[in-house]
From TrEMBL:
InterPro entries reported in the protein's UniProt record: HATPase_C_sf, HATPase_dom, His_kinase_dom, HisK_dim/P_dom, HisK_dim/P_sf, Sig_transdc_His_kin-like_C
Name of this chain's protein: histidine kinase
PANTHER family: SENSOR HISTIDINE KINASE, TWO-COMPONENT SENSOR PPRA
EC number, UniProt record: 2.7.13.3
Record's keyword terms, sorted: Kinase, Phosphoprotein, Transferase
Amino acid sequence: MEAPKKIADPGQLTNPPPASNTELAMLQERVVQLDRLASIGQLTAGILHEIKNPLNFITNYAHLSVDLIDEIEGITIKFEGHPDYEDLLDVLGMLKGNVLRIGENGSRAERIILGMLAQTHSDSASFEPTDVNTLLEEYTKLAYQGMRSGDKEFVVSLLFQLDPAIGKIPLAPYEFNRVVLNLVLNACYAVNERRKKQVGDYKPTITVTSQRLDDRIDIKIRDNGDGIPDEVKAKLFTPFFTTKPVGKGTGLGLSLSRDIINGMHKGSLSVNSEAGIYTEFTISLPLNQEQQNQ
């Protein structure tokens, strides 16, 4: 009688089992998504270049207009005592305020465009003194508006608790803003999914905090979505792992974000969550380490 064959211990297998048809189909879908994203990225870069030039024109002429208003204010002193003198000063003051706001918002739009263009380049990261709080606020709002553009019913309360003591620190800003976008977009998705299925007085909320400590800066992005189960949390930073439906995510955002924070910035990216209550991602950046251009 032939002896039964010994079944190999799975832990001793040297070759992994072949991927199932379902896994192959999922990987193929991911490749299609990435190829589509690459095409969109090229198109977007061209559009951004076309927008950048007229926007730069607007910003420059806004600054020049403020200078001209200052000159006009100097000339109007000659008419002091005229019945309409005070009214003229009021009008010039309002005009100057409006032009200043045009210039400020034009500069903000330019920063966002430059940041997006930088992400289409494959050049090595460049570290520079960066206003972290300004970056957090701008890209959080940008992520929210991006989410809202696809779902007009989506509304979320954005709460900012930003430590003014942080100031400027060395960062690779164009890579770091990608992390902020990824984390806030994930938070928006989480609270929006809970909003769709929950009745009652649920109010989607995302809280962004920053704090300067003795040896590091901590940044926390917290949402009051459904939370993340422990078995999912263990896989979150695995490339191509996603809990979103096909077409909604590539599964690369958190993996790339961890590489940018842990590898490039020598910091750490971690997550805490409680099912049904919250999810909070924490970025820790060291202060006592000289950042080197990568």
